[in-house]
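Something for you to look into today, if you have time. I want to see for myself how the chain folds. Leave the record below and I will have a look.
***
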Amino acid sequence: MNQKELKELVEFLIAKDITEFELERGDVKVRIKRGTPEATPAPPAERIIMHAPAALPQTLSSPAAAPVPEAAPVPENLHMVRSPIVGTYYESPSPGSPPFVKPGDIVEAGQIICIVEAMKLMNEIEADASGEIVKVLVVNGAPIEYGQELFAIRVKK
């Protein structure tokens, strides 16, 4: 089961107001529990708990439940590229390779700017705006959250 399937499953469960779900496929077991407003004043964040071979992560925050960090004031002409998934940030395609981008580089919308590893899958992250990379906001190899700011781009006029 990949990241996209998990996200679609969580969205379906939310849409159908299902609070608990369990699925087994071979050696992978997925169990999803959601808090309900009636049960607690402030529902806990959703979590996906996976019981799988030791190589896979045991827990993964649900993209639907992960809070988007408060954004600091951004100058008008800067666009923040945010992570579409939870995972580990990598600045280059392989260890020892030069980074995809660095401050001062000009990028086009759709250009690969980093990789986020999630569940042993390497997800290429593309720039969603054209312009100059002003700042890289994450350290190579760092764990990142859904919605976390990765890059500041000075958008072309």
Q: What stands out?
A: The helical segments are 3-15.
